[in-house]
Amino acid sequence: MRLKKWGFEHYLLLISTASLGLGAGFQGATGAGAFLPGFLAASLLIFVCSFLMLLTWRWAGGGKVLAWMMILAFVLRLVLAAFLIWGLPQFGYDTGPQQIGFVFEDAFRREESAWQLAKSDQSLLRAFSDEYNRDQYGGMLMLSALVYRVLTPDAYRPGLIAILSAAALTLSIPLFVTTLRRQFTRRTATWAGWILALYPEGLLLGAAQMREPFFILLICILFWALAHWLDRAHLKLVLPVFALGTVTFLLFSYRVAIPSLGVLFLWVWVVESGRMTKVWLKVLGWALIALAGVGSLYFIRPWLAEVLRWDAHLTVMQSGMVQFLLERLPAGLTFPFILIYGLLQPVLPAAIAVPGPAIWKSISIFRALGWYTLLPLLVYATIRIWKAEPPVRKRWLGVFLMAALAWLLIASARAGGDQWDNPRYRTIFLPWMALLAGWGLDFAGRTKDRWLGRLLAVEGVFLLFFTEWYVSRYFPVIPRLEFELMVGLIVVLSLAILLGGWLWDRRKKLSK
Question: Which among 90, 82, 95, 94 is positioned nearest to 158, based on CA atoms?
Answer without folding.
Answer: 82
